[in-house]
Amino acid sequence: MKYTEILLEHGGGGLLSNELVTEVFLPHFRNAFLERLEDSAVITVGDKKVCFSTDSYVVDPLFFPGGDIGSLAVHGTVNDLAVCGGKPLCLSAGYIVEEGFPMEDLKKVVRSMAEAAARAGTSIVAGDTKVVPRGAADGLFINTAGIGLVEYEGSLSVRNIRAGDAVIVSGTVGDHGAAILCKREELGFKSEIPSDSAPLNGLVEVILKTTPRVHCMRDATRGGLGAILAEMASQSGTTVVIRERDIPVREDVRGVCEVLGLDPLFLACEGKLALFCPADDAEMILLAMKGHPFGKNAALIGTVAEVGGGRLILQTAVGGSRVVDLPVGELVPRIC
Amino acid sequence: MKYTEILLEHGGGGLLSNELVTEVFLPHFRNAFLERLEDSAVITVGDKKVCFSTDSYVVDPLFFPGGDIGSLAVHGTVNDLAVCGGKPLCLSAGYIVEEGFPMEDLKKVVRSMAEAAARAGTSIVAGDTKVVPRGAADGLFINTAGIGLVEYEGSLSVRNIRAGDAVIVSGTVGDHGAAILCKREELGFKSEIPSDSAPLNGLVEVILKTTPRVHCMRDATRGGLGAILAEMASQSGTTVVIRERDIPVREDVRGVCEVLGLDPLFLACEGKLALFCPADDAEMILLAMKGHPFGKNAALIGTVAEVGGGRLILQTAVGGSRVVDLPVGELVPRIC
């Protein structure tokens, strides 16, 4: 590892995050579950399969259009379970709070978590609170972990991705990143952009009911759709080709990106997933997704090519084509 | 809630922590699992019982005699599962790292976590890393969550505590608190006091094999043995009477406490549990515990009285007797 210190980019979900995992964590935590490099570990309990996942949330600001750190923390872990085929059974919540944090804000966050959990059909069954002196943390950080029950008869893994697969995204990309950026920087845009923070387990249930042949799903968070697709291409050793023109982007998100010189492909989502399936199943899955509120803007955006391997290729709107590398880090720190 | 801001004491495992749970978390997260107020939630998966627990670690300093934040984070969650009868199946680890944190220190912590997990017979199967800008966190915080398999045929719950029960502690109390205090304050004592940070699942396995009649166990962490016994007395509505003279305390820990004017009863442990069982089983359990390295100083320290309720009574070494209230907070912030 060439870095002697942790950089912001090590937490950004991009290239340096991957390096940290493969060079620092995996050598010590080596086990079959972590090495799958999926969003959840799948373990066996009796004759059941359960998945297990965790995420910490350090988003700044804590409250933003469309959500807050509490709902985000619930949706994030619910979604990590969902894309592994897990129906959320229960969640834990660990709070690290800075001394002096307003009690009213904590209550708001707790209420928001409870509501988000209820909407996702689950509940928070274990918790912990640590308080650190003023200056030792910035307000409030939350960790959630979750257990999901996997009943899908098919197999969901990046290793299932095959040449010819269709690539589907469940809706507009970059909403969460744009929402946080606009809120944080007080950019003075006329209307607020709401985060897309949402629980995807309902949508996933609809998808997995249509066919047992979905190959792999991931939710696009840090690093956006571009980061997860580049990562999936690299991990599966396939060449993923996507068409920029077909990727759904809200008009206002596109506007913010143009002003700030950002690419919505790499802007964080918090309620969107990418899915790989055999081309023959794509239309049926797309139709099912469009019937769900969190999939109504779902779109077929690409395919897995027959040749080459390990790369994400973007066919640009102007007709060119380029390799998309995994971004080094996240465009903005503390996006989630 | 009379406080408008979070105080350090809200994270101290004492009275204000309890208030926070009952007045802020429980009203929103109301469910049968949290309301049990045990160290883990026990849920059913197929025909198996599993327990689920989480804790965050913000200890300062990160490295101390007898351990570091990594081993502490593994032991803490393993112990929360163990005292609920759970054999640890797997753990998750969530890191919040401050930009600029030394990579070497992170590697040391990760190695320590992997070793601690292996010693406890489990592994870390899911993880997450967030990096926050300099000044937004102090170095490194870790959250662990864990899943345990409960195979104990008896029932472990504070509600099982009965008049006549014996109270056993698994060893010397206050070691961890004294270790952190000495290290942090550079008090200049001649010899270092090692933390008792240790995984208790092996000891618990030995205990639960001897009898299905153990009523309740808790590990003594923040607030020390005094805090958990006062809490258990209050939650069970019984009067717990303990004899100060019989509570094992290391000589050096007693020395530090005398110098600093602290009571070892309220100093944090990280590898000790308190256990309630029928008086008739106490000798057999004690014998079994003494045969295990983490139980060799186990001692019978009290009983549950026939009358009164909800109080912890301390029979002092000098012959008096007093009610021990749940401490307001922890004696030292960032003890774990």
Chain-wise SSE layout:
The structure is a homodimer of 336-residue chains.
Chain A: H1 15-29, H2 32-35, E1 41-45, E2 48-57, E3 63-64, E4 67-68, H3 69-82, E5 86-98, H4 103-119, E6 124-132, E7 140-150, E8 166-169, H5 175-185, H6 201-210, E9 216-219, H7 224-236, E10 240-243, H8 251-260, E11 273-277, H9 279-290, E12 299-304, E13 312-315, E14 321-324
Parallel strand pairs in A: 5-6, 10-13
Antiparallel strand pairs in A: 1-2, 2-7, 3-4, 5-7, 8-11, 8-12, 9-11, 10-12, 13-14
Helix pairs in contact in A: 3-4, 3-6, 6-9
Keywords:
homodimer; 336 residues; alpha+beta; 60s Ribosomal Protein L30, Chain: A; Phosphoribosyl-aminoimidazole Synthetase, Chain A, domain 2; seven-stranded mixed beta sheet; five-stranded mixed beta sheet
Biggest sheet details of chain A:
7 strands, mixed
Average pLDDT, all residues of chain A:
94
- Structure classification of chain A: alpha+beta
CATH fold label of the largest domain in chain A: Phosphoribosyl-aminoimidazole Synthetase, Chain A, domain 2
Determine the fraction of residues in helical runs of chain A and give it as a percent range: 25-40%
Computed over alpha carbons, the radius of gyration of chain A is 19 Å
Number of separate helices of chain A: 9
Please identify the top-level CATH class of the largest domain in chain A: Alpha Beta
Domains counted in the coordinates of chain A: how many? 2
Sequence of strands across the biggest β-sheet of chain A: 9-11-8-12-10-13-14
What portion of the residues of chain A fall into strands of 2 or more residues?
15-25%
Which descriptor suits the 3D outline of chain A? Answer: globular
N/C terminus separation of chain A:
26 Å
Low-confidence regions of chain A: none
CATH superfamily of the largest domain in chain A: PurM-like C-terminal domain
> CATH architecture of the largest domain in chain A, please?
Alpha-Beta Complex
Return the string of H and E elements of chain A.
Answer: HHEEEEHEHEEEHHEHEHEHEEE
Oligomer: homodimer
